[in-house]
Amino acid sequence: MALVRRSWATTWLLALLTAATAGAACLWIGSAAASPSRPPASIVPRRAAHPGPVLGPWSIRAIKSVRLWSVSCPTSSFCLAVGNGPARDSTHGYVYTYSHGKWSAGHMLDHHTYQDTVSCASPSFCMMVDNLPAISPAGYQGGYAFTYSRGRWSPGRKITSFFTDVSCATRSFCAATGLHDAYIYAAGKWSPGHLFGPRLYPAAISCASRSFCLALTVPWSGNGPGGYATYSRGTWSPVRFLHNVDWNFLDPVSCASAQSCLATAGGMAYVYSHGRWQPGVRIGPALDSPAVSCTASFLCVAVTDGWADVLSDTRWSGHITIARHAYFEAVSCAAGPFCMAVGAGARTNSVAAWAHARSR
């Protein structure tokens, strides 16, 4: 059910930072004096001559005059998406529901907040957070969380100045990232923020369970490497830095379990396996970070310029064209597996594409 995509908050904040060196093909952790040994070849992702499960065929729908930028699918028959409104009303966030093959018309929850990211633990529970865009109408506020429970949305609750991402593992556990902090939602209450560091900006988070989350950070000033921190059984680890990675594009992350996560940066895909990051595999252009989503069986999907790339059994499928002239901004995969990708299409429309996996 995990989703990953670049949030608008991340986009405009990173635009203010100094550009970093382009992404390299190798990732390592720690100080400049040390790097971990290469993991066993059997678990290093590589291009597949004969990949496992295949996603498709893809069903595609254009949603007129709308742009979708976040989606979460806890099952193959239910998804929630966030985007702008009719005629691309870019001053408000709208919510769209996918149910049993059909998309609903969008509706606005709040006139003074900008809903940005959604995460659903089940069809009866989702959490949506908002950020504060760089260009905001007077009276806009950021840092609100909205709860969807059994078909109804709660009023927004002010938690922080603005959010960058949210991930819900169960209906009673979510984690969200803000300006410098991470916030835990447990048993209906939000905890005070955990400070990663005054010079670190947490760009993305993914929770595989209530006892494990992984957050990615980028340097606020533009100087220094990106990094990551893990949440395990109520405690955050110190931030560990990721060297030789283009932090300017270090954003999407999706965790299938405490032992398996996938992140992208500068067109490279990096697998986090049993506490270590593996060498990267190029799956896209250097100036891009494909959105990613992984299922519990660790079938992962990456999407961006109209294509998908599937990671299965440690192997990447190669680009699979879904929709020409489209740019996918988010993807969410559920058990089945089933995946839904959303983004911008041609002629000011949004595009939604979904597929089930099948055996080759």
Question: What does this protein structure show overall?
Answer:
With 360 residues, this protein is mainly beta. It has a domain at 3-19 and 77-308: Methylamine Dehydrogenase, Chain H. It is 2% helix and 51% strand. It contains one helix and 38 strands. Strands 1, 4, 5, 36, 37 and 38 form a six-stranded antiparallel beta sheet that branches. Strands 2, 21, 22, 23, 24 and 25 form a six-stranded antiparallel beta sheet that branches. A hairpin with a 2-residue loop joins β26 and β27. The radius of gyration is 19 Å and the shape is globular. The model is unreliable at 6-51 (pLDDT under 50).
Question: Could you give the topology of this structure?
Answer:
Layout: E1 3-4, H1 8-15, E2 28-29, E3 46-47, E4 54-55, E5 59-63, E6 68-75, E7 78-85, E8 89-99, E9 102-103, E10 107-108, E11 114-122, E12 125-131, E13 144-149, E14 152-153, E15 157-158, E16 165-170, E17 173-177, E18 181-186, E19 189-190, E20 194-195, E21 200-209, E22 212-219, E23 226-232, E24 235-236, E25 240-243, E26 253-257, E27 260-265, E28 268-273, E29 276-277, E30 281-282, E31 291-294, E32 300-303, E33 307-312, E34 315-316, E35 320-321, E36 327-334, E37 338-344, E38 350-358
Parallel strand pairs: 3-34
Antiparallel strand pairs: 1-36, 2-25, 4-38, 5-38, 6-7, 7-8, 8-9, 8-10, 11-12, 12-13, 13-14, 13-15, 16-17, 17-18, 18-19, 18-20, 21-22, 22-23, 23-24, 23-25, 26-27, 27-28, 28-29, 28-30, 31-32, 32-33, 33-34, 33-35, 36-37, 37-38
